[in-house]
Amino acid sequence: MDSKVRQDIEETAETITAPGVPTECRRIVQVILAGGSGTRLWPVSREQFPKQLIGVIGTESLLQATVLRMKHFPAAWDVAAEPVIVCGEEHRFATREQVHESGVTARIVVEPARRDTAPALTLAALTACADGQDAILVAMPADHAIADLDALHASIETAARFAQTGDIATLGIPPTRPDTGFGYIRLGDALQDGAHRIDRFVEKPVAELATQYVASGNYWWNSGIFVVRASVWLAVLEQLQPEMHAACVLSYEQLNNADGYLRPCAAEFSKSPSDSIDYAVMEHLGKPGSPFKGVVVPLEAGWSDLGSWDAVWDAMEKDESGNVGSGRVLFEGSTASYARSEGGRLVACVGTTNLIVVETDDAVLVADRSRVQDIKGLVSRIKLAKSPEADAHRKVRRPWGFYDSIDHGERFQVKRIVVNPGARLSLQMHHHRAEHWVVVSGTALVTRGEEEFLLSENESTYIPLGVRHRLENPGRVPLEIIEVQSGTYLGEDDIVRFDDKYGRCN
Q1: Phi–psi pair at 6, nearest 5 degrees
Q2: Is the domain of 184 the same as that of 89?
Q3: Rounded to the nearest 5°, which phi and psi values hold at 424?
Q4: d(Cα 244, Cα 246) in Å, to the nearest integer?
Q5: If I label 451, which of 26, 43, 160, 480 is the partner at 20 to 30 A Cα–Cα?
């Protein structure tokens, strides 16, 4: 970001925060915060492939549904064609692929490190202002479900009108039940269009307190959707969190976008404190001496944060006994249960009540619906044990395609590898393993040491330990091979990359 852009942002912020001086702004930029890991939806959601990339309640992923959420927003507003998506380094390829499949072009900002939602929104605000224009940011998590888009658009329009004159708006959900899984917003003075001043934010309460909140009628659930002018966000952050503001701005000024992603400087960004939007900014609004005000606008649109398997069950259509099945699932004498088959095997539930059963290729979860919040602790234990089931699925997606670990033993591993047409793996070498490749379908272009040759169906080759090699698909159909690895160590970190079109060199 050059000095002129910074000056434009600062001048806009000074104007918008001057009492009684509203400034017209009709430009809207959708911001999608896609940096979460979704551990409560384990074993489907994993560190390398979290819930926003998964079709939790339909065929399209939650990210894809979110990307399309502003597509038919009222024409009176100038909605930017390219949303800004903030994601982690490990998810950038899958994020771009899924956005492309949705027919959308997005500006993807890659966080150099996880620093929670406040720094992520700051990077998005800097991106939205990079052309010297201000914009109203509509920031939403990538992993929520919303049934009624017309109702969502109406609430966002109301929030945008408040944002035009310098308010920071959030959408609140009038609660339908006491729930300890959500944060709450205490309502302040009533405003037009059903909105309220924000009195304060309340962390996830215990059950008794949640019951009191709902009974009082003075509390709404915190949806995590925010509507604010980019200039206002940057100005309020500079006032409330100067260290975070400085780190993000300096990081963005050294932006690199050589590979099609917007990459802020890692060294500067790592200096930013880690904090959420709620803690960093929203809890401070309206305090004495602050020119910034918070507004909460009601949202009644079939919203769910899909934060647990119980929430997924609640959001989906049920049979006459209250059961929800996904994949190859059968219920017999069961009630109010959720079952999901990811790996293609039949999952049969007999006489179950209030039960969650989730099957994948490498793990099975069985949990009481009332205890689903404990899954996060279970995943922590799996991580401490260094078990692979916390990090990735058996089928691992890569920018060139995917591989599926079919079998493994003490000194061998068998993988099914599928390479997309025109794609290629990195030029690489292994210190501890050799590999045999057998082509099942398609044509492979193989680099082995100084050699380069083609392999067709039913042909094979051997890659000795320590030899540079590359696999490429020069054809128009997917290339499928079976790879047999043998050696003393078979971990994915035994890869030395010399050349890679996806920027993953060592």
Answers
A1: -60, -40
A2: yes
A3: -150, 150
A4: 6
A5: 480
Question: Following DSSP, what letter does each residue of 4-22 receive, concatenated?
Answer: HHHHHHHHHHHHHTSTT--
pLDDT tens digits for range 286-345? 777 677 889 999 999 999 999 899 999 999 999 999 999 999 999 999 999 999 999 889
Q: Are 419 and 468 part of one and the same domain?
A: yes
* DSSP string across 167-236: -EEEEEE--SS--TTS-EEEEEEE-GGG-EEEEEEEPPPPHHHHHHHHHHT-EEEEEEEEEEEHHHHHHH
| Cα separation, 484 vs 12, whole angstroms | 60
Domain check: are 448 and 480 in the same one?
yes
Place of tokens 């082995």: 448
HEC states along 78-121?
A: EECCCCEEEEEHHHHHHHHHHHHHCCCCCEEEEECCCCCHHHHH
Encode pLDDT of 145-173 as tens digits: 999 999 999 999 999 999 999 999 999 99
Structure tokens at 420: 């997309």
Question: What's the whole-model pTM score?
Answer: 0.86
**CATH code: domain of residue 420:** 2.60.120.10
Q: Both tokens of residue 28? A: 């809207």
Reading the block at residue 315, the tokens are 């959001």
- Domain around 416: 395-499
Confirm whether 389 is domain-assigned. no
| CA dist list (Å): 279 to 34, 184, 197, 218, 391 | 19, 13, 17, 21, 28
Helix H segments across 106-148?
Answer: 117-128
* Token reading at 439: 């082509």
Tokens encoding 330: 């059968």
Q: How many structural domains is the chain composed of?
A: 3
d(CA 2, CA 61): 36
183/95 same-domain check: yes
φ, ψ (nearest 5 deg) of residue 204? -55, 120
Q: Tokens 């047409």 — which residue?
A: 421
**Residue 258: CATH number of its domain:** 3.90.550.10
Kind of pairing between the strands at 294-298 and 196-202: antiparallel
Last residue within a domain, chosen from 280, 304, 328: 304
Cis before 478 (ω within 30):
no
* 506 domain-assigned: no
Structure tokens at 108: 């993807």
**Residues 75 and 141 placed together within one structural domain of the fold:** yes
Same domain, residue pair 431 and 313: no
Residue 442 is assigned to a structural domain of this protein: yes
- For 170, the token pair is 């959030």
Is residue 280 located within the same domain as residue 336? no
